[in-house]
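SAMPLE LOG
Freezer: B-3
Tube label: C17
Construct: single chain, 460 aa
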Amino acid sequence: MKIKLLTLLTATILSSGAMAATQESELEQRLNQLEQRLAAAEKRAASAEAEIQQIKATPAPVTAPIAVVSEQSTSSKSDNQSPKLTLTGYGDLKIYGDVEVNMDAASRSNGLTSMRRSANTNWADGNNERWDINGRLLLGFDGYRRMDNGNFAGFTAQPLADLTGHMNLDDAAFFFGHENDWKIKVGRFEAYDMFPLNQDTFVEYSGNTANDLYGDGYGYIYMMKEGRGRSDSGGNFMLSKNIDNWYFELNTLLENGTSLYQDKSYHGNELTNDKNVAYLRPVISWSQDNFSVAAAMEAQVVNNAYGYKDANGQTVDQSDRTGYGLTMTWNGQKTDPDDGIVANLNTAYLDATDETDFTVGANALWHNFELGYIYAHNDIDKFDVTNTVNNCDNDCWITNAGTYDIHTIHSSYLFPNVMGMRNFNIYLGTYVSWVSADHESDDGSDNTRYGGRVRFKYYF
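STRUCTURE (predicted):
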């Protein structure tokens, strides 16, 4: 019995020791696994830290902006691009312009000369003194293409917006030729100026078009502009040629001939147009250094283009008009821009149906100051006083056949580079005109007209 108890106790102790050994072995194994896991975690943490540092050291990539596309522009892939101005590549394109605003003060204008005194209207006829602000904005578009052999072609377009809210047009023409040789030009433009007025700001007897030059009952200052162009009722075709110091030009103006006359009236008769007129205007000019001289004529070559009906209902032709002109210029500013003198001497003679007109003018510019004088002599052979259709009623100077002399003195002064801007100028202009006749007019001795202007000129 003791042996059995001893044997059972020994077996129990041995069994407990074995179990303890087994448990100790398992514990050690678990501790080893835990250490391995901790080591692996530390390794992963170190690797993550290294990656974080590398990310911080690397610059962030630049992300392209997201394009905003209009719903109306999704039909074409190219519509997603930024807007741009594309030229055809056929030549150069020039865009330019100027702003011209006038502040005017003038005496009553009726009954003396066919003078345009406003940039907004053709005529300024009236019995009252005039205070006026007028002007226009010009936009210019010029295209030009030149080939290596000297051939060229181009165009010009100059729309005008005036202060009255109307749109007009200055030049619109197409041209082509060979540089420094020959040129053809067709459209609306002005040909060679045969009566330059130098730095004129206010004496605009004939305006800048070939229309409304002659006012019945008014004195006519003929300036070789009837066939020059820029007409509202027709167009020009011009050929020109350069040979050394010589320049040749032949301008053809086709238009409604009665557009020359304000109110379509001439010598007290109402004109009726039968067919368009054709003015041929050849010019020959020679220049060397500071001096130039030009001679020209203009002739209306269509017979019986317009006229009036006589008492028998027969048409009396009034369309025969031929003019001659000579102008000489000395431009000292070519060689001496600061102290040079620019001087013009102009003369013109018109032989028209039942009337001849002679005009001579001289002007000079020095140090931004211009002074000029114009003399005009009108000799009218026939005037129908019983058929008054002009708008000056009983206040006309020319209501009878006879001779009339018109004198005009004009001057201007330029203030350049206003406020330090080379494209901003201010002009001061003034004039005085008076007429004398070989008989007393209804207007008595009130034969003087005068005016002044401040012009703001801005180029862009």
